[in-house]
Design brief:
CATH class of the largest domain: Alpha Beta
CATH topology of the largest domain: Rossmann fold
CATH architecture of the largest domain: 3-Layer(aba) Sandwich
Strand content: 5-15%
Helix content: 25-40%
Structural class: alpha/beta
CATH superfamily of the largest domain: Glycogen Phosphorylase B
Strand order of the largest sheet: 3-2-1-4-5-8-9
Distance between the termini: 43 Å
Largest sheet: 7 strands, parallel
Number of domains: 2
Number of helices: 18
Number of strands: 14
């Protein structure tokens, strides 16, 4: 039986997680064979282990560039001009938040010409989450505008669908009745909140009463890949020994975010997705020069309270709760996607159209997120036991 071949291009763990939501739309279709490949990437060291856990067929990159596929999916641009297939490119995070200043790489990451038309090649489709991106494309890369499809955001839809399970996620994490969960979030880069964790961590350890508060750390997979898992665990070892949950890069962070009572974040995607949960947000770091001024991250930076180095952390968390008004965050949430709840429908239609196949005769369902393991699973001691 002949099957159409679909290639998933996994540059990093972050890209891979994004594509898994997309690939779920092809499940149970015996007309298709999905294979994976891992191009060279500075933050790609953890990708082989990620793919091994999936049990996927993995083709070497040098072999992939000599083959032909019926469809390819990529959440990053590096090397995809060498793939012989109709290519769909997607953002790997929420919207297009990061701005690069100065030099040949200047521009909004994901919306630069080299991101949209790598090697000068036109992909079959450029997926964007919101109609507002079309204005940026028209200004910065008009050649990509005819290729753009406003599809939505899969993480937005999974989080929104899972919000009613918040109490179940909190029980799964092992939170006692009345305990508050503080989730500290960091993107990657020199001006991420991880760059200031040496100042924040002592406050999380020393200023939050252990009986009333639990803490989890969500650190971007690029931090783990860039510094190495050993080094990150070494830096955070004392936190794990004191009961702080250090969520590993391969784990699904979305259910942990939903369970949060407070979020301490920065200018990355996870903090922005936190606006969907109703948890008050404090910004530990939000560097203006690194933020796309047209993005919802810029609006969040202008709106959310900023963590003070001199006032007690507990007082600031209480202040964030008192001042939080969910309706004031509605414009930020609505800027994440202009197709809320419709990513699966739109994306499946696009993929099957490019494959030249009829869609399966059922609605693509947005599945709620699975429950997380207990926070106690993610401690330095447990890592050492399983090593």
């Amino acid at each position: 039986m002949g099957r159409k071949k679909v290639l998933a291009v996994i540059h990093t763990v972050t890209y891979g997680k994004r594509l898994l939501d997309v690939l779920s739309l092809l499940e149970a279709d015996f007309r298709l064979q999905v294979v994976f490949t891992a191009p060279p990437h500075a933050f790609g060291d953890d990708v082989p282990a990620f793919l091994a856990r999936l049990g996927s067929v993995v083709l070497p990159w040098d072999q992939v560039t000599r083959m032909t596929f019926d469809l390819a999916l990529a959440a990053g641009p590096r090397g995809v001009q060498y793939i012989d297939a109709p290519l769909i490119t997607l953002p790997h995070g929420a919207n297009y938040l990061k701005r690069l200043v100065g030099g040949a790489d200047a521009g909004v990451a994901g919306l630069r010409r080299q991101d949209l038309l790598p090697g000068g090649r036109h992909p079959a489709a450029v997926v964007v989450p919101h109609h507002a991106e079309l204005r940026e494309l028209a200004r910065d890369c008009p050649e990509a505008l005819p290729l753009a499809h406003v599809i939505g955001d899969p993480v937005h839809d999974r989080i929104t669908e899972s919000l009613p399970l918040r109490a179940a996620y909190r029980r799964a994490l092992g939170l006692a009745h009345g305990q508050k969960l503080v989730v500290a979030v960091s993107t990657w880069g020199v001006r991420s909140s991880f760059g200031r964790f040496d100042a924040l961590l002592p406050r999380l350890i020393g200023e939050l009463p252990a009986a009333r508060y639990r803490t989890a750390l969500l650190v971007h997979p690029n931090v783990w890949a860039g510094h190495g898992a050993y080094q990150v665990r070494s830096w955070l070892a004392r936190c794990g020994q004191l009961g702080i949950g250090i969520v590993p890069p391969e784990a699904d962070w979305r259910s942990v975010l939903i369970a949060a009572d407070r979020i301490i974040g920065d200018h990355g995607s996870v903090t922005l997705y936190g606006t969907l949960t109703g948890a008050p947000i404090l910004l530990a770091n939000s560097p203006e020069r690194d933020i796309n001024p047209s993005s919802p991250a810029a609006t969040l930076a202008a709106h959310a309270p900023t963590l003070s180095p001199t006032h007690p952390l507990l007082d600031q968390l209480d202040y964030a709760k008192r001042e939080y008004r969910t309706e004031e965050y509605a414009p930020i949430r609505s800027r994440i996607t202009s197709e809320p709840g419709r990513f699966n429908r739109n994306m499946r239609r696009l993929m099957y159209g490019l494959l030249g196949l009829g869609q399966p005769a059922h609605e693509p369902v947005t599945v709620p997120l699975p429950a997380p393991p207990p926070l106690a699973t993610w401690t330095s001691e447990r890592w050492e036991e399983s090593a």
